[in-house]
Amino acid sequence: MEIKNHFGVYGVCLQEGKLLCIEKTRGPYQHRFDLPGGSQELGEGLTETLKREVLEETGYALSDYSNPRIYDVLVQEEGQDFAVHHLMAFYDIVLDFERSQQTLPQKVIDGSNDSANAIWLNLEEITADNASPLVLKAKAELRGFPELDKTSYMNWKVKKGIYGTI
């Protein structure tokens, strides 16, 4: 089986017991909750990617970021003959509500981005049926039990409908 590498930078923001997530619109995590973030553009540094992606996907600017760390998961979509080794840099982020936009940028609305909406979720609402592996890693970490070893998701089901249902 072929393994493809994917690297992304993601923000973890917990406020009043709720985790900032996005509603994913495409890719293997579509119709699931995901962390705001994504891939670097050519020549972009990690924190530049973090700031750009969080703004694009949530409409929020950052006032601070800290505590970089790396996790990974292996995801093989059901029916595919390859797997993706998803390497992810997590940063704790603080949102700047004074400079933030009230709505998502047009490039998100017109479909050139993969976030439909930003949403705050109680940790208890997050399950393997409604969240991406990234959100599950963040949940474990926030509960005090970080999953440091690579987690594998074989025969990963891509959701075809409403969040939390197949």
From TrEMBL:
UniProt keywords, alphabetically: Hydrolase
GO function term, MF aspect, one: hydrolase activity
One Pfam match: NUDIX
Nudix hydrolase domain residues: 4-143
InterPro entries to which the protein is assigned, alphabetical: NUDIX_hydrolase-like_dom_sf, NUDIX_hydrolase_CS, NUDIX_hydrolase_dom
Protein family according to the UniProt entry: Belongs to the Nudix hydrolase family.
Protein name from the UniProt record: NUDIX domain-containing protein
Native organism: Streptococcus parasanguinis
